[in-house]
From TrEMBL:
It comes from the Eukaryota. The chain crosses the membrane at residues 25-46. This is ATP-binding cassette sub-family A member 1. GO terms for molecular function: ATP binding. Keywords: ATP-binding, Membrane, Nucleotide-binding, Transmembrane, Transmembrane helix.
Length: 140
């Protein structure tokens, strides 16, 4: 049987079935039209408004590493919208969280955990505290 013959018989069968089921045919035609008119009424009652182009801060995926992923969740919890491109939108940049509190916390923890005898930062802090005490005693 040729393609056009099969198509013609299938359309004839469909038309005959639809003609016998008039209520079902009305529902199949009226239901999409009803939904379409609801969408039109919602669109007309709430007209669109102009909004600037929106750039969201980048958020690292878990495959980028645990620290960038946690920073992406914590630092961008409110998901702000910016008018201009954010620093992390450049290709190859995992995160722009270098100055965040979480980043400083992890870098300080890493420095303390990897503390060596050559690190003089604690001695420097003690010197600064001594000088502050002397300054406080001198001015008081």
């Amino acid at each position: 049987m040729a393609f056009w013959t099969q198509l013609g018989l299938l359309l004839w069968k469909n038309f005959t079935y639809r003609r016998r089921q008039t209520f079902q045919l009305l529902i199949e035609v009226a239901w999409p039209l009803f939904i379409f008119f609801i969408l039109i009424s919602v669109r007309l009652s709430y007209p669109p408004y102009e909004q600037h182009e929106c750039h969201f801060p980048n958020k690292a995926m878990p495959s980028a590493g645990t620290l960038p992923w946690i920073q992406g969740i914590i630092c961008n919890a409110n998901n702000p919208c910016f008018r201009y491109p954010t620093p992390g939108e450049s290709p190859g940049i995992v995160g722009n969280f270098n100055a965040s509190i979480v980043s400083r916390l992890f870098s300080d923890a890493r420095r303390l955990l990897l503390y060596s005898q050559q690190d003089t930062s604690i001695k420097d802090v003690q010197k600064v505290l001594e000088k502050l005490r002397k300054l406080g005693n001198y001015s008081g």
